[in-house]
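Your task
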Amino acid sequence: MLRDSLPKIVTEVPGPKSQELLKVRKNNVPDGVSMLAPVFVEKAEGAMVQDVDGNIFIDFVAGIGVLNIGHTHPEVVEAVKAQCDKYFAPNINVFNYEQYPKLAEKLNQIMPIEGEKKTLLVNTGAEADENAVKLARRYTGRSEIIAFAGAFHGRSYMTMALTSKVKPYKFNFGPLPSGVHRFPFPYCYRCPYGLEKQTCGLHCAKMFEESFFLEYVAPDQVAAIILEPILGEGGFVIPPDEFVTALRNMCDKYGIVLIADEIQTGYARTGKMFACNYWAVKPDMVVSAKSVAGGIPIACVTAKAEIMNSVTAGEIGGTYCGNPLASASALKVLEIMERDHYPEKAKHIGEICMRRFYEMQQKYEIIGNVRGKGAMMALEFVKDRTTKEPAKDETKAIIQECWKNGLVILGAGVRDNNIRFLMPLVITDDQLNAGLDILDKAIAKVTQK
């Protein structure tokens, strides 16, 4: 079975059939839709993908974090097929159907938010972040939002404003919505203040009170602070726990809503069901999407009930929101993840990978930083470990060398010098090590070691 196979390249990559389909894509699809691996999928199972030419790849991307449960999980496929036989989309604003409130109930049970909770279902992560901002503004009666450097929250207009990286996400798409303020993320490897974590005294958190609230935005005008527990597109950077605690205390002090964007970190990826389960404090709202439904589009906004109760009928929602197919898939995904201990799978993957990554760092000077939680990991590549000059071209070359040899991996970071790892959590140890071997050889070839 493909699910149990190892990588196998039988043609040039892309092969002849993919090359023909690439012509169709070039003539009919905008170049603005990005492409990582220039191949076309024939079928996919678990952590493995077979293209139309018969080449088999290990997938270390998982739909950019969408497939924590793996490609075409048999039980999820059956749950969706069963729902297809009943109805597709009667629209929750017209007819009630059980999948929407049952999924909301389940999410309310597992979300790390204190007290009574309610959940809104929408379609995409960007749409979820948009609604989180709407809810925070309505609840507080304030207009301003604080987001972080390195953040990615989507490509819609509000979320472009929240997103940090200019190219390719924001360049020449302005003007963007107002009311968004940017604060430096506590990126300890590249501290924006030039300090060291061991001796900085949590300088980044102090800067809110000592500078940001004095020079940029008054705290009593701020509706929400939106924070990725681990930066996603920004390079899988993990903030110090003490920073998050300070943030929570500050939000309590000024009546600011703390939003955790768990779109990429959620659903067992980091070794816990949600990354903010690691925090000693809890957010007021959690936004999640990607892996909740095994690849069918759905996104979730879960918040304290008092926040959700600040809006009235018709002010939130949409035509396809919480559609029965996606909701049925999500219910089955959550059942499987709890039953089969997916957070433990992520920890196991992380242990194997981090050991190999540190070994690679000893061999290759180009690896400046290794970081991660569970199965959400990154390598940062630099030309010089002292200056930390980004090795952008080398990173791109490593990624290309990998997919040519049967491993699909993805870059990240505002400097384009990180490789992030998001393999499906069903990957076998043999597949995992085969992928790491391909990566090791690719780094060796690019650095000629």
About this structure: Residues 59 and 206 are 41 Å apart (CA to CA). The mean pLDDT is 96.
